[in-house]
Input
Amino acid sequence: MPEFTDLLFYGLAALTLGFGFLTVANPFSRNPVTNAMFLVLTIISMAGLFVLLHAFFLAAIQVLVYAGAVMVLFLFVIMLLDLPEENRRQIKTLTLGLGTIAVAAIAGIFIKAISHAAPLAASDRWLDGETKPLGKILFETYLLPFEILSLLLLVAMVGVILLSKKDLK
Amino acid sequence: MFDWLNYNPTAAFVVFSALKIGIAFGVVMTMVAYAVLVERKVSAFIQDRVGPNRTAPPLALKIPFVGRFLQGLGIFQPMADGLKFILKEDFTPSYVRTIYFWLAPAIAVIPALLTIAVIPFGSMLGSEKMVIADLNVGILYTFGIVSLGVYGIVLAGWSSNSKYPFLGGIRSTSQMISYEIAMGMSVIAVFMMVGDLNLSRIVEYQSGGLHHWLVWRQPLAFVIFLVSAFAETNRLPFDLPESESELVGGYHTEYSSMKFALFFLGEYANMIASSAMMVTLFFGGWQPLWGAAPAGSVFAGLTHILWFLAKLVAFMVLFIWVRWMLPRFRYDQLMDLGWRRFIPLALANILATAIGLGLYSLASN
Output
């Protein structure tokens, strides 16, 4: 008899994959809003997976930032642009080939990473729920990369504002 | 009678959690119904009217003395309102996007109710903690769930497929996202003082009486949180998503019957949730004015729950009072207040708190 958490994991993983598939290739609807909503569901099921890993902070942030803010803005833009339903595109051989290569490359990286990873029980659980250890890691061990990343984000933001202003004085 | 529960912790957990969920849900629903009545009575008082004083089920007037009095208070009004919502024709216009039109009211209600799960509404009752889920990241959970509430409104506006609801939906999206930032930032200062995200721990930190409440130590954070709560719940003076004078009914223009009632219910449940958050974060949660340790007896436990409810009701009345006293903001004023006043203020508050805490730890070493 499998553990309850195992069942939860397989359930959530199946949901994540299913919703993810419906986000990119929904056979029932070509409406962009529907796709965006399925992406929200994907994000929420992924937050569930984080909870199973005891990474409660990450789970909460995942929902708060991605589902609660980023996706709302996506939806906002889609609705304002009033996009028509997308037509089914003819799949070209070149696109198919390039897509396959890209997916294979990512899959290769994943498989390599997973085969090298220690099983969960052995790895130390420093992400365990509490925010304190996470903060310590971010602001002590990885302070420089963290600051560089925030600077990058700031630059991107300023760049977007600059680009979206049509008439600069 | 409950001996078997002591031998089986899993069963005890399931039974007690189910009980707590059931009771909390029932209390919230009743509060929503009566909040509507209070809203009508308070507005009547402010506008020098009488308010609902006619409804009475058959036989209720036969109760000696009390019957007439209860009728005058409008105690029976919520029943009539509820019945009316259920019995009215549920009309779906032909031009709407049906699936989203049906989903939207549900999506608007669910997050409001989910928030209640992490609020410690009492200390202890017997050996049970009076909180449904004592999460370590309690407050982040609340913000995460609250941020999902906007989907109900935005989908309602879009799926109605007509102009006024759409404008209402768009307005609400930008409003809620803007004020969520200010709200979240105002709370960061509170975490920094307490050093924990767990809501029970935040209540514990405020034990010791009135003067230990965080509202005195973080007054700015409280003001920002309070005003943002008005914006997040779409209440006047920030009810631009449904401003009647320009948008008919805003996002719920095309809704009728129980679907409309669900939006209403969501709004009031949201008010209850934000009031509960303010009580927990700034006003000592379930603690009486003179402070108390977690209850040892059932009686003390019940008084703590009553204290929590009393503070909650005080905030609900504040919400209602403000609605009938202040005129509506203009949209650009609303955005200006959120982005150019509150966010810088909240950031300054975080910085000031950090400096204060740093100096304090230096001085105490």
Summary: The interface with chain A takes residues 100, 135-137, 140-141, 143-148, 150-151, 154-155, 158, 166, 169-170, 173-174, 176-177, 180, 197 of chain B (CB under 8 Å).
